[in-house]
Amino acid sequence: LFSKMSKTCAIFGGSRGIGKAVAELLAQKGCRLAIIARNLEVAQTTARNLGAGHLALSCDVSSEQEVQKTFEEMQRNLGPINYLVNAAGINRDGLLLRSKTEDMIAQIHTNLLGTMLTCKAAVKSMIQQQGGAIVNIGNVVGLKGNSGQSVYSATKAGLVGFSRSLAKEVAKKQIRVNVVAPG
Predict the structure, then answer these.
(1) What range does the domain containing 16 cover?
(2) Which of 20, 50, 71, 101 suits a disulfide with 121, CB 3.0-4.6 Å?
């Protein structure tokens, strides 16, 4: 169905929101996609609606083992990953004084650690292919802050520092890393 030249893209958080919109655009451009979400059924529905040849996978990005298994599965089914989009994120709004520690940890693990883990796995694959591109979805609150979103804002600000540093680490390997901060 796809030519040998078609690029393969992994979209974490690809089943809804910004991730789904990115998936629709890339599918139109002829990319082979892996739609990855915590909810497999929703990911499968999204992948089916994009047409044939796309893969749906379930993954909790905060688990290094799950991320590694997901990348192995993508390599097996789609070949090497050329593009990575990190749109998986959770937001538990609330004033800091009312925030539960486990909610803080969940946001840090999904929004920040999860992106680090998927980038680590993708970079390994991209170095072997001599290039690739990563886009991490941030949020303008990571730059400006917002009342009631201190923890979420911290995770999105962390993405900016992480992505800038990673971009410098992998530039010589022909891998681009960018953050898009909507809002």
Answers:
(1) 8-180
(2) 71
Tell me, what CATH number does 163's domain have?
3.40.50.720
Does residue 77 sit within a domain? yes
The per-residue pLDDT string of the chain (183 residues; one tens digit each, 9 = 90 and over) reads 344 567 999 999 999 999 999 999 999 999 999 999 999 999 999 999 999 999 999 999 999 999 999 999 999 999 999 999 999 999 999 999 999 999 999 999 999 999 999 999 999 999 998 899 999 999 999 889 999 999 999 999 999 999 999 999 999 999 999 999 887
d(CA 84, CA 135): 6
DSSP strand E in the chain: where? 8-12, 32-37, 55-58, 83-86, 132-137, 175-180
